[in-house]
């Protein structure tokens, strides 16, 4: 997850890739707690 978040600070293609990867994680309810915790840090 940290790697995906770091990609959000790169140029547009990397931002799009990171957004797509995070979206894939968010589609699985089992990952929502970790995504929520990372959003608070």
UniProtKB/TrEMBL annotation:
Q: Which GO terms describe its biological process?
A: cilium organization; microtubule-based movement
What's the protein here called? Uncharacterized protein
| Any single GO CC term annotated in Swiss-Prot or TrEMBL for this entry | ciliary transition zone
Q: Which GO terms describe its molecular function?
A: kinesin binding
Do you know which InterPro entries this protein is assigned to? KAP3
Pfam families, sorted: KAP (PF05804)
**Organism of origin:** Protopolystoma xenopodis
Top-rank taxon, per record = Eukaryota
């Amino acid at each position: 997850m940290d790697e995906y978040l770091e990609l959000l600070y790169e140029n547009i293609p990397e931002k799009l890739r990171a957004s797509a990867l995070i979206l894939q994680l968010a589609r699985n309810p089992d990952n929502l707690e970790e995504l929520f915790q990372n959003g608070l840090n």
